[in-house]
Design goal:
Length: 111
């Protein structure tokens, strides 16, 4: 008796799953292409100078911007001007602090 109840509940669960609309399935959107955007960037700090290279492998233009946070309280942080990285293009971004660099990051924006 116990085997038939578990078999019956398994059959009911399978029937319910098969009757769900395709939108309810977690894999229903696999046929849609993912949103491919954003240049890959790498940065290098040498003393107080920062250089970043960003390569955009995607067809949409990525406006990249270098942000530098300086370590000393009196040293001005900087946000560089946006630079357009077109498809298959590599761009160089540069900036500096007067003294030590605390952190560096690159922001991305669609054109």
């Amino acid at each position: 008796m116990r085997l038939s109840r578990s078999l019956a509940s398994t059959a009911v669960a399978a029937a319910l799953l098969m009757s769900l609309p395709s939108q309810a399935s977690p894999h229903a959107r696999e046929d849609e292409a993912p949103d491919l955007f954003g240049a890959s960037c790498r940065s290098k700090v040498t003393g107080s100078r920062v250089t970043a290279y960003c390569h955009n492998p995607y067809p949409d233009v990525d406006r990249v911007r270098l942000h530098i946070e300086c370590d000393r309280w009196w040293d001005l942080d900087s946000d560089g001007a946006p630079v357009e990285a077109g498809p298959a293009q590599t761009v160089r971004l540069q900036g500096r602090c007067w003294k030590e660099v605390r952190s560096v990051w690159v922001s991305h924006q669609r054109r």
